[in-house]
Amino acid sequence: MAGTLIVQPGVEIPEAELSWRFSRSSGPGGQGVNTADSRVELSWDLATSDALPDALKARALNRLAGRLVDGVLTVAASEHRAQLRNRMAAQTRLAALIREAIAPPPKARRATRPTKGSVERRISAKKRRSNIKQNRRPDHD
């Protein structure tokens, strides 16, 4: 649990930059649900962090703009009864979010012309369909 949060090889978030909050969780838990603080909120101040290089940080800020509150990214986990498992789930979720946010943009698609065969198949299918509909009409001679 202690130590850095490894997002991907070469990208790590120091434990000192992560802040944890614990509260009571709703849902199953029996008699201990009202006494155990099993819900976990993991926050990371992306705007002031030095864990990411400037280019990756700018990309992450841009992509996560809708999730950030004053530059802080927060992830909550309350699906497990044990606080430790919720801590692990929150770390996994935060790492996945950051990994997705700093991923390079996909290669731009280069538009290509349809092949001659596909154009011919499309036109013949349209003609077939047209003939089917034409044969449904009554003769007006």
UniProtKB/TrEMBL annotation:
Provide the Prokaryotic-type class I peptide chain release factors domain boundaries: 11-139
Q: State the gene name recorded for this protein.
A: arfB
This protein's UniProt keywords: Hydrolase
Q: Where is the composition biased (Basic residues)?
A: 124-135
GO MF: peptidyl-tRNA hydrolase activity
Q: Does the keyword Ribonucleoprotein apply?
A: no
Q: Which InterPro entries match?
A: Pep_chain_release_fac_I, Pep_chain_release_fac_I_sf
Q: What is its EC number?
A: 3.1.1.29
Name of the molecule in the record: Alternative ribosome rescue aminoacyl-tRNA hydrolase ArfB
- Protein's UniProt keywords contain rRNA-binding: no
Disordered, as annotated region:
100-141
Q: Which NCBIfam families match?
A: PRK09256.1 (NF006718)
Family of the protein in this entry:
Belongs to the prokaryotic/mitochondrial release factor family.
- First-tier enzyme category under EC: hydrolase
